[in-house]
From TrEMBL:
It is an enzyme of class 3 (hydrolase). The keyword Hydrolase applies. InterPro entries: Glc/Gal-6P_isomerase, GlcN6P_deaminase-like, Glucosamine6P_isomerase, Glucosamine6P_isomerase_CS, NagB/RpiA_transferase-like. The gene is nagB_29. This is Glucosamine-6-phosphate deaminase 1. GO terms for biological process: carbohydrate metabolic process; N-acetylglucosamine metabolic process. It holds the Pfam family Glucosamine_iso. It comes from bioreactor metagenome. Residues 10-222 form the Glucosamine/galactosamine-6-phosphate isomerase domain. CDD domains: GlcN6P_deaminase (cd01399).
């Protein structure tokens, strides 16, 4: 694991360089994206670089980590909506090549098909991750099998509480989501994990130095050959 400790702004600039390099070398790269607060600065930086003409996504394909069960793209709280607003509508990626797990009116096979689509696309080149305070990656809560593929998950109370800020009240936060599995994430050729703020410090310490255990899903990243962590000084303060 390579660990970088920088301000959020500097981390976004450095991580955006990875995308510029990748898309120059492989214009049809496959990108794994995340939602939540963590990646917003990176998305702003990718948009800025795109507008400067430093990179184009017009041959790229993307797969998002997760989606809430019961929400479709017309709902402002859905992750599809989040991605369209915060990234896709501001760059040149063809929307039909941006994939987010199905949250509403899904076929029974939609989770299996999601993994199949990733494989057919050639596999994910860069998977972006945030981390939950309980160690979740994607919405793989503690206890999820390291062998999991895309699947339906029950959200823990702490995750629902952490995400309630995007809804009018806690009651409105869905109880379930569809998430790429841990194996799906680990199959990515490289992984960039971002964490900011003191509230992530404990889980970052456990993920990096603790035992590799399903109780801390992010700890599996110790076994991936190409992981870079971009931490701000608060998230890194227990290292
Ligand atoms: C989001 C995701 C989650 C978040 C995590 C951190 O697609 O899969 O694992 O990365 O919950 O959320 P924030 O960034 O809001 O602190």
């Amino acid at each position: 694991m390579k660990i970088h400790v920088f301000s959020e702004e500097k981390a976004a600039v450095l991580a955006a360089d990875r995308y510029v390099e990748l898309l120059k070398r492989k214009p049809n790269a496959v990108l794994g994206f995340a939602t939540g607060s963590t990646p917003l600065q990176l998305y702003r930086e990718l948009i800025r670089r795109y507008k400067l003409g430093e990179l184009s996504f017009n041959q790229a394909t993307s797969f998002n980590l997760d989606e809430y069960v019961g929400l479709d793209g017309s709902s402002p709280q859905s992750y599809r909506y989040f991605m369209n607003k915060n990234l896709f509508e501001q760059i040149d990626i063809p929307l039909e090549r941006t994939f987010v797990p199905c949250g509403k009116n899904c076929s029974e096979k939609s989770t299996v098909e999601y993994d199949a689509k990733i494989q057919v696309s050639g596999g994910i080149d860069i998977q972006l991750l945030g981390v939950g305070r309980n160690g979740h990656i994607g919405f793989n809560e503690p206890g999820t099998s390291f062998d999991s593929l895309t699947h339906r998950v029950q959200l823990s109370r702490s995750t629902r509480e952490a995400n309630a800020r995007f809804f009018r009240s806690l009651d409105e936060v869905p109880f379930e989501a569809v998430s790429m599995g841990i194996k799906t994430v680990m199959n990515a050729r490289s992984i960039l994990l971002f964490a900011q703020g003191e509230e992530k410090a404990e889980v970052i310490q456990k993920a990096i130095y603790g035992p590799v255990t399903e109780e801390v899903p992010a700890s599996i990243l110790q076994l991936h050959p190409f992981v870079e962590l971009f931490l701000d000084p608060e998230a890194a303060k227990l290292l």
